[in-house]
Design a protein that fits this description.
The chain is of the alpha/beta class. The protein folds into five domains: 238 residues, 3-Layer(aba) Sandwich (Rossmann fold), CATH 3.40.50; 164 residues, Succinyl-CoA synthetase domains (Rossmann fold); 113 residues, Dna Ligase, domain 1; 121 residues, ATP-grasp fold, B domain (D-amino Acid Aminotransferase, Chain A, domain 1, 2-Layer Sandwich); 170 residues, Aminopeptidase (3-Layer(aba) Sandwich). The protein has 29 helices and 37 strands. The protein has an eight-stranded mixed beta sheet, sandwiched between helices. Strands 9-8-11-10-12-13-14 form a seven-stranded mixed beta sheet, with helices on both faces. Helix 5 links the parallel strand 10 and strand 11. The longest helix is centred in the middle third of the chain and has 22 residues.
Length: 882
């Protein structure tokens, strides 16, 4: 991933158009000339004297100057030679409008694209396409589009791989008198892809939001890193069809990826742009809560309430008792529901004013929807003025549904102050996107709780179990192996004992001395129910022997005498009164790797279909967020005396997350049922499918997992032993505690400002890092993350190219003068060198002499900052050192 030279694509000073002088070239040239593009536009076509009234050059070498950007309409097969010539001349950006020919095989198409990349690479030249139909930056008058184009500058950028979607978006903008900051159709995305576009737009201040249409993602790690970074900086709204082909992965995988990335997903093109407008023009709710609906139409209010159940069944919709009591005097019918609040058909500005005053104070209300239908004989101006006044002072979103016949003057006055809609369903859907955006940002910034128990899996036992099964050519673990694998990851499960045959099964049952469950184990039997391979509540050795013999007889009748038998699994029967039956596990997610899920368990799991999923790695907060998206969670959270240990359930998801991170050979894992009660959890039945290992999960998971290999113990000169490890999201409170107990002057040295404590957003940004692009090492006392005291941190943040990384460092006063500063710097420099980062740099206050001395001792170049006389710029090259 790289943003190198992308400015030549999006901010060129000059443009060349290389084609055959045909109709397509004429359209593109007219688009380039139709707006006030400040640089020269130079068409090139052999045998053509002029095009659209502009002189045409015969060859690249005839140009009077080197173009920053070249738009090539020639066939893709001719592009490599043209790119080499442009690269040698100094051009650094190319748009290929032609697609790979339809008759090419997949191998031939890939070879053509690779030839383009090979030609561009020596010159660091960036290519959009092949098949890129539109690259537009209206602010500078750049419109390299194959169709007639007229587009005003806007505040949102569009990125798409679909030419039809780019054309539809432009048509929508024309019809709705709207604009865009950028239109980037990446076509085949041989070079510049979604991730590159996101990285560029993240720091492009003219794009206040980014809207995206995608059908599938190729490079999931690159996509996730780039879109998560972008979503932290500005709203990202995604439109993706649920299914785009028979080979597509299930939509729930994309839904999980989008939630984890912090983006808002919409359902259609109209909503794609509406979501941008509502996020740009309205406040975002501060919390999940009720959308209070009020107005002068009972029917319109009921339609809004019905839409709420359809678009957002998570947030509660009840007002506080105090609000309900205060609003009763305003309602047409005091006995009717207070949400929606029907003010009566003749309600005027005063009634709206009083209702808004009450609802604005209600902390259970996260947003307000005011409805104005035709009623009293007025133009609505007074009601609109009331709504505008409250919108300016409210700290929650205020939306309006305004029937055009309810007063044109009021609607006109309302337009500049409050987002207005014609229909209640549209307004409610817009509010649901505001809630979705708030929730997605919470996932990106909320500090998770610490892990409720120390968790240290038995990697060696797990490795032996999986290796043995793979060596034997198995694709599924039997019950005994499954129980041992779960136990290796400290997941409580029913004790399982293995017996080779019926006689031994009876002996095992006798030793247990209680009723047992008997299960036949055979890799050739997918469903034990087909051969009666499970028997419950068997008492005594003889009953177990008899049932085991009967199972073998049934198996041989169905599968023949040569069938493979692993033996029998014997488990004591267990009862846990009041326990909930849940299901948790792992499913394949295609290019996104394994996906974790949680839901309603038991025999009706498939019929109930109440489950939610997420991507690894997980922490406690992310695990609870998955659980909260199911219907059964409300029952679990409000179950009175049956209250289950929800932390234990979340911790089980975390343990499964770590399992699939540690072992890529686990393809799927299903625990059903998982009993959950106040005593914790217990896995009653589970199945594990495996496949040959495809490499280190850290290399192919879409989110780089926690780099445990960097952890080590260190000993201070005074004999104290501390722990050095990469930072975890759970460290936020302890990092803040270190800042709070540090002298103000030391805090100022680190953050260049006076801070008594870290703001929540800053704490999350420092601890919830993308390990693929950033690294932060912390020195802590021994203990569970989130509880162990943090005594120091060093951090680097690299650009997408890994060209350079900025560092910062802070130590607690209690370990000052013990050599931890130089040690942390050595560790982070070594890490940066292994990652291929070419330079580390930082800004140090001129008065921070201890840090400057460390920099000089480590070989950093130290020089005054060009931007601030109080700062020193320090830098260390890593790519040319021995």
């Amino acid at each position: 991933m790289t943003v190198r030279n992308l400015e030549y694509l999006f901010k060129p000073g000059s443009v060349a158009l290389i084609g055959d002088g045909g109709a397509a070239d004429t359209r593109i040239l007219r688009n380039l000339l139709s707006e006030p593009f400040q640089g020269p536009v130079m068409p090139i076509a052999a045998g053509v004297r002029s095009l659209a009234g502009v002189p045409v050059y015969a060859a690249i070498g005839d140009l009077p100057m080197v173009p920053d950007l070249a738009v090539i309409t020639r066939p893709v097969a001719e592009a490599p030679a043209l790119i080499r010539e442009l690269g040698e001349a100094g051009t650094r950006g190319v748009v290929l409008t032609c697609s790979v020919p339809a008759g090419c095989t997949a191998e031939e198409g890939a070879a053509l694209e690779q030839a383009v990349l090979d030609a561009a690479r020596p010159y660091l030249l960036r290519v959009i396409g092949p098949g890129a139909s539109c690259l537009s930056v209206p602010r500078i008058g750049l419109h390299a589009a194959t169709q007639p184009l007229s587009l005003d500058p806007g505040r949102a950028a569009l990125v798409t791989k679909s030419s039809a979607m780019a054309a539809a978006a432009l048509q929508w903008c024309r019809q709705n008198h709207s604009g865009l900051s950028h239109v980037i159709h990446i076509g085949g995305a041989a070079d510049v892809d979604l991730g590159d576009s996101f990285d560029y737009l993240a720091t492009e201040h003219h794009a206040r939001a980014v809207i995206v249409y995608i059908e599938r993602v190729r490079h999931t790690r690159k996509f996730m890193s780039a879109v998560r970074r972008l979503a932290r900086m500005k709203p990202v709204i995604v439109l993706k069809p649920p299914r785009v082909g028979a080979d597509e992965i299930d939509d729930f995988v994309y839904a999980a990826a989008f939630r984890r990335a912090g983006v808002v997903r919409v359902d259609d093109l109209e909503e794609l742009f509406s979501a941008v407008e509502i996020l740009d023009s309205s406040r975002v709710p501060g919390r999940d809560g009720a959308l209070a609906v009020l107005g002068n139409s009972r029917s319109m209010g009921l339609l809004a309430s019905n839409a709420l159940r359809r678009y957002d069944d998570v947030a509660p919709q009840a007002l506080s008792p105090a609000s309900s009591e205060a609003l009763a005097g305003l309602a047409r019918d005091p006995e009717a529901s207070d949400n929606p609040l029907d003010l009566g058909g003749e309600a005027g500005a005063e009634a709206y004013d009083q209702a808004l005053e009450v609802l604005g104070r209600d902390r259970q209300v996260s947003g307000i929807l005011a409805i104005k239908s035709p009623g009293a004989c007025d133009d609505g101006a007074e009601v609109a003025e009331v709504l505008g006044r409250h919108a300016r002072k409210l700290r929650k979103p205020l939306l309006a549904v305004w029937d055009p016949s309810a007063g044109a003057a009021g609607l006109e006055r309302l337009a500049d102050a409050v987002p207005a809609f014609n229909h209640p369903e549209t307004a409610v859907r817009a509010f649901s996107r505001l809630l979705q955006y708030r929730r997605s940002q919470t996932l990106l910034t909320q500090t998770p709780p610490s892990v409720p128990e120390a968790f240290a899996p038995d990697h060696e036992q797990a490795r032996l179990i999986l290796s043995a099964a793979l060596t034997a050519g198995r694709s599924q673990l039997n019950e005994y192996q499954t129980q041992r694998l779960l136990s290796a990851y400290a997941i409580p499960c029913i004790e399982t004992r293995r017996a080779a045959g019926p006689e031994e099964a009876g002996e095992v049952a006798a030793a247990l001395g209680e009723p047992v469950a008997l299960k036949l184990m055979s890799p050739e039997v997918a469903l034990k129910s087909q051969i009666g391979g499970v028997a419950l509540d068997l008492e005594g050795a003889e009953a177990v022997r008899a049932e085991a013999r009967a199972m073998l007889e049934r198996l041989h009748q169905v599968r023949g005498e040569a069938v493979t038998v692993d033996g029998f699994a014997i488990q004591p029967m267990r009862r846990r009164e009041g326990a909930f039956e849940l299901t948790v596990g792992v499913r394949p997610g295609g290019p996104f790797g394994p996906v974790l899920y949680f839901g309603h368990g038991g025999t009706e799991t498939e019929a109930i279909a109440d489950w939610a999923c997420g991507l690894p790695p997980l922490n406690m907060h992310l695990a609870r967020e998955i659980m909260q998206r199911t219907r059964i969670y409300a029952m679990l959270a409000d179950s009175g005396l049956r209250s289950p240990d929800l932390d234990a359930v979340a911790l089980t998801l975390m343990k499964l997350s770590q399992l699939v991170i540690d072992f890529g050979s686990v393809e799927s894992l299903d625990i059903n049922p998982l009993w959950a009660s106040a005593d914790g959890v217990l896995a009653l039945d589970a199945g594990v499918h495996i496949h040959p290992h495809r490499g280190d999960p850290a290399d192919y998971l879409p989110i780089r997992p926690y780099p445990q290999e960097l952890a080590e113990d260190v000993t201070l000169p005074d004999g104290r032993r501390l722990h050095l490890r990469p930072i975890r999201p759970e460290d936020g409170p302890q990092l803040n505690a270190m800042v709070e107990r540090s002298p103000p002057e030391k805090v100022r040295m680190r953050f260049f400002q006076a801070l008594k404590s870290l703001p929540q957003e800053m704490s999350a940004r420092l601890t919830q890092i993308d390990y693929d692009r950033e690294m932060a090492l912390v020195i802590t006392e021994h203990g569970v993350p989130g509880r162990a005291r943090v005594l120091g941190m060093v951090r680097i943040s690299a650009d997408p190219d890994l060209e350079a990384a900025e560092y910062d460092i802070m130590l607690d006063d209690v370990v000052a003068g013990m050599g931890l500063g130089p040690m942390l710097m050595h560790r982070i420099i070594d890490y940066a060198r292994r990652r291929g980062i070419r330079e580390i740099y930082g800004e140090v206050l001129r008065e921070n002499e201890p840090m400057l001395r460390i920099n000089q001792a480590l070989g950093f170049a130290v020089q005054p900052s060009a931007d601030d006389p109080d700062l020193m710029h320090v830098s260390l090259r890593l790519d040319n050192e021995a």
